[in-house]
Specification:
The protein is 43% helix and 27% strand. By secondary structure, it is α+β, with helices and mostly antiparallel strands.
């Protein structure tokens, strides 16, 4: 009984704190969230960084939906990728048009592929996208992490890491 009362009290305390936590989500406890609570000045640099992150999160989310979610390679790249796109994958050349020329036929050759975006992480002008790609539901597939750099609202640079999903793992943790 005592444990139930303590749990209920803790839950109510946390629930009461949730609006304040949500209002200051994304702040480390230093800077604008805490400063505002103590009547200190707002940090313009932190605010600008937050705004840049949110703008880029929207851009990357729309790009990834078009690209991985809908398979609309050309539209995704012409809308969100700069013409001078820099490619760090050693088997791909630089340039937006080069990427479209390589990726459109690749996506077309895999009409049944399953592309599942697991998470999108954005910080300032950098984004990381964790994706699981399978050829069919029985395929273990691959894990992909795309790292994107944005400039002036466009994706200008790309790195990726691709790892096959193994049959057995040395630990019990899933890759996704």
């Amino acid at each position: 009984m005592k444990r139930s009362i303590l749990a209920a009290t803790a839950a109510l305390s946390l629930a009461g704190a949730m609006p304040a936590l949500a209002q200051h989500a994304g702040h480390s406890g230093h800077g604008s969230g805490q400063a505002a609570a103590h009547g200190e000045r707002h940090d313009p640099a932190m605010h600008a960084r937050h705004m840049e992150t949110e703008r880029n999160r929207a851009i990357v989310t729309r790009f990834i939906d078009l690209f991985y979610g809908q398979g609309r390679v050309r539209e995704a790249f012409t809308t969100y990728v700069a013409p001078g796109y820099i490619q760090h994958n050693p088997v791909a050349a630089d340039g937006r048009d080069t990427a479209i020329a390589a990726l459109e036929p690749y996506f077309a050759s895999q009409p049944n592929a399953i592309r599942e975006v697991q998470r999108i992480i954005v910080d300032g002008n950098l984004a990381a996208v964790h994706v699981r790609v399978r050829q069919n539901p029985q395929d273990r597939g691959v894990a992909i992490v795309d790292i994107l750099r944005l400039e002036n609202g466009m994706i200008v640079e790309h790195w990726d890491v691709i790892q096959a999903v193994p049959e057995r793992s040395a630990n019990p943790h899933p890759m996704f």
